[in-house]
Amino acid sequence: MDIIISVPWLTIQPKGSIFLADEDNKVLNLTVQRNLSPPLLSLCNQIDYGYCLCGRAARDRAVVFAPSIDARHDVSFDGIKPHGHFCVPIESLGKLLGVLNLYVSHGHDRDEDEEHFLVTFANTLAGIIERKKAEEKIGKMARTDALTQLPNRAAFLERLHQEIIRAKRQDECLAVLFIDLDGFKKVNDNHGHQVGDELLVMVGTRISKCLRESDVIGRMGGDEFCLILPNISLQSDTERVAKKIIQVVNEPYLIDEISPKVGASIGISLYPEHGNDSASLLKKADLSLYAVKQCGRNHCQVYQPEFEEILS
Question: Which residue, 124, 133, 220, 251, is the most exposed by fewest CB within 10 angstroms?
Fold first, then answer.
């Protein structure tokens, strides 16, 4: 944005915006702006295709030029000053990516060379946007479990580190829950990995529905999941969540006329009571999980120092 509004030979005003397109919902979202007034930022935060000049550029996939505020200028507010527009669609391989919105003085004469330059700049923007989207997609893939689409181990560990820092700063408690599915190996052995994979996806969905928006779930690998419950006041709150998860995991499944059965064992550690770093909390949650496995499975257990003797 700063580059285009500072080109010396262009007769555009030193303000403007870039909208990114949401093709599914047919709306433009204001993403970058320079020197726009607060009323305009509010009114133009999201624009439907076909609404005002930028919306028309998106709908028609064509440059919209207005030398002044005319009947197509649907956005208006008290104190709006006379001006004109170039609204240029940003496209790549026939796909609309957004709209470049630039301002010109009232009564501006449409100039072919100027418009060609703006279209060329929009095409350059399209390449930048596509590359950025590709980088974000690759980054997301590197942090997402391919099967369940949950955060993977690396992403979960990074988030746990961040949540511990936040808890320290806010003087709050948090809980780490280590979940292992009981009977999952038997499902794989009896029904094959395809059924096992579908079951893992369903389990991840069920667990997620038990959580608050602020809670974090990750798949650690195999049939293991981990949770972070930030800002937990009481141990009993954590145990209540764990018992709810055990309940929903144990409910019946139906996959291709097969009804696999699994349960859940859950080990729990608490910050700062059981540790003040990721490694300590995960180790003690895992140790608590092991204690559950040793004592019948399909229930939950908060870390106790005597569990250390189990591995000794």
Answer: 251
